Amino acid sequence: MAKTYDYLFKLLLIGDSGVGKTCLLFRFSEDAFNTTFISTIGIDFKIRTIELDGKKIKLQIWDTAGQERFRTITTAYYRGAMGIMLVYDITNEKSFDNIKNWIRNIEEHASSDVERMILGNKCDMNDKRQVSKERGEKLAIDYGIKFLETSAKSSANVEEAFFTLARDIMTKLNRKMNDSNSAGAGGPVKITENRSKKTSFFRCSLL
Amino acid sequence: MERGKMAEAESLETAAEHERILREIESTDTACIGPTLRSVYDGEEHGRFMEKLETRIRNHDREIEKMCNFHYQGFVDSITELLKVRGEAQKLKNQVTDTNRKLQHEGKELVIAMEELKQCRLQQRNISATVDKLMLCLPVLEMYSKLRDQMKTKRHYPALKTLEHLEHTYLPQVSHYRFCKVMVDNIPKLREEIKDVSMSDLKDFLESIRKHSDKIGETAMKQAQQQRNLDNIVLQQPRIGSKRKSKKDAYIIFDTEIESTSPKSEQDSGILDVEDEEDDEEVPGAQDLVDFSPVYRCLHIYSVLGARETFENYYRKQRRKQARLVLQPPSNMHETLDGYRKYFNQIVGFFVVEDHILHTTQGLVNRAYIDELWEMALSKTIAALRTHSSYCSDPNLVLDLKNLIVLFADTLQVYGFPVNQLFDMLLEIRDQYSETLLKKWAGIFRNILDSDNYSPIPVTSEEMYKKVVGQFPFQDIELEKQPFPKKFPFSEFVPKVYNQIKEFIYACLKFSEDLHLSSTEVDDMIRKSTNLLLTRTLSNSLQNVIKRKNIGLTELVQIIINTTHLEKSCKYLEEFITNITNVLPETVHTTKLYGTTTFKDARHAAEEEIYTNLNQKIDQFLQLADYDWMTGDLGNKASDYLVDLIAFLRSTFAVFTHLPGKVAQTACMSACKHLATSLMQLLLEAEVRQLTLGALQQFNLDVRECEQFARSGPVPGFQEDTLQLAFIDLRQLLDLFIQWDWSTYLADYGQPNCKYLRVNPVTALTLLEKMKDTSRKNNMFAQFRKNERDKQKLIDTVAKQLRGLISSHHS
Questions:
Q1: Which CATH class is domain A5-177?
Q2: Taking the domains of chain A in order of start, what are their residue ranges?
Q3: DSSP-assigned states of every residue in B166-196
């Protein structure tokens, strides 16, 4: 089967139930918004192909259920994620406070080099705001993570969020590839070791 | 001798005659002697008469002398006394003269007074004569003055009576006076003036009743409404009343939860309390709003003037014109109920006036005329209603319009106008009402389904539990026993849809009120409408949601559960309709509810959509496949994309535990079959021109991952190896190639028990060709390696044999 993309990036959306994870994904993949809240059951995903630096990148974005009862199932997907978005609701302070817990989950279950990003969603509802932008920024800085306020309803910053995360993953990937090439030049044994890892991006680059 | 006899006879007669004449002369007054004497001269015997006369004179003289002689002494005495008297008389004369002179002197004043008296009497006589004349003339003048006053104060009928009286009774008595002649000349003009002014009054009257038609009609409609309210109170049946009251109580309970779809109609359908009735104002009658006297006066005036027919024709003509005006509906009548109400009020007002005139005049209008007008009015009204009601898109407006039409019909029926055609038209409007309702409910259902969260309804208290159970007939002993918090299996849209179906039924019933339909007819009508609602409107709404792009498994699974419960509730809807229409339970319904079919169809569609949805997810994963078909390396684990795919399927079936068993099994089987078919296509597609054994090995690892999933029992209820059968074709094909078991395959081909029963020779050949191409590409190197040459030879041999099989199979 002829491949229609250059890279595959797997992203994960996590956060409390009702903060707007599914709506963000829906806005990004379908450019639409559904006002009715339908609680996600288990796990779902959507795929959208974007272009970065002339490369076709398939984003497979996993949408997780925020409810506690689905935690076991959703946690299993952390390992495969290359980028994770932690989402809270600016009108719900509790969801912001829980970001720390979600970060702890990531450190426990995700790969150590996973790219992360914090999103404060529903920024169109400023009249009901409970979490200031400054607090969001400070939290992100504390963890060395990028931060954006978004609105799935008004589509503010949604594209920017996903493209930013994808670009960061691409940057990291390019850095790894440069390191690999340099090591490869040093000796054939290392090249063999790299091939045996069978990471998808590495194999693609050889083609 | 005869001659002498005759002469003698004549002489006797003459003598007698002369004797008679002489007696008459002696006895008759001097004044009358003429005719007597003339009679003498008329004859021819006046000579003889003269002789007789002379004779009689001498006789009389002789007698006088005798008498004088006899009385001579007395005569002398008398003369003596006379001479004495003469002296005395002279004295008396002197005395009288003196007296007379004195009287004359004294009476001179009296004479003057008498003269004055005479003058006065003359004057008095003249005055009396003048007064007598004036007494004749005065009534005429008074009457004329009265006439003028009556004309001025516009009391024209009395004026006309006065005029008639004047002309025929008073004026003839004094017709010789000049002023009377002037009056006589003026009378025709005055009569014309009365006529014209009366006509003007009539026109004002016509204008007045035209302006007040609306008010008159409104009044009549209110009276009919009041009468109906009274009838309702009297005829109210306890059963229906209590049921309606119960419904209202239900609304009170759920006031904050359920939004009434027909608040206005609900209020309209309420039964008025007696207390409310007493508080109503006294509604004035039509005659209180309009002064009919002008038409009566005008009618009398024209009758007296002998122009009654002219008047009747004019009146009818004008009223026909007004009728056409009244029957012209305003162009935007359909926009509001008030538009219709005003239209009806005008029509009712018009006919109430005509009816009033029919009963209070003699022949100005007759039944035939009114019936003709009504027939025209009815056809025009119905045409207008058909046109304008077709623009209505608001079922509440249609319902209110129907109530208004019923009231309109009832009002006019009281006045004796036939209204059957209106009720026939109402049945047409009912169909339109149904269509309007269906459109409205389509919107309602769409809103309900769009706003649903497709999650089981959570309840945290007994109160909430009872509320939900009160809205939807759901009974589950086990759920009832569970502790709080707990969940109903269905989502919010189930009780909402159920209640909206009942609201729809109420709305249909509301239209049937007052249409004089039997309960069986109402029942059938409601069932037909409800069937349309269920089989068309609700069905379309559900299908639209199910077919919606981006609908998720969450929604689809919940829809399956929801429609199962709605299907079970259909029997309660049947009972609901039976109760609400009061049809006896034993009655055989000509119309049945088909709701169960709708929900079955929706469920099947949702199930199909689940299968489609899952397969689309599988396709998305497959698009991520990135096999290196030329790899020589032997891998030790399945491809990333496939591991993710299997994990996704596993977690999906794990979390949707509330999916009905058979649906879950079918979905799982459908997914596995789709996956197997897709993988096979992936392997055989033309774009893959070459592949190595290593690639097949990797592919085999993926298929094993699938088989592992199938064996793991992701969904309960499958027979031990049923699910694995989905991958059997792939398994046998891969085993054949990896184990290079061609001798067995070729030897056993066609046998019922052969090991590779499911491997199609065409498929095998296609795949083999891809491997041969690989070898052929390395032909130059192969020459130097015996193993490679041998392998190529073997491939060619097998290919040849496969072609043989294919050929023989075709022949």
A1: alpha beta
A2: 5-177
A3: IIIIIGGGGTTSHHHHHHHHHHHHHHHHHHH
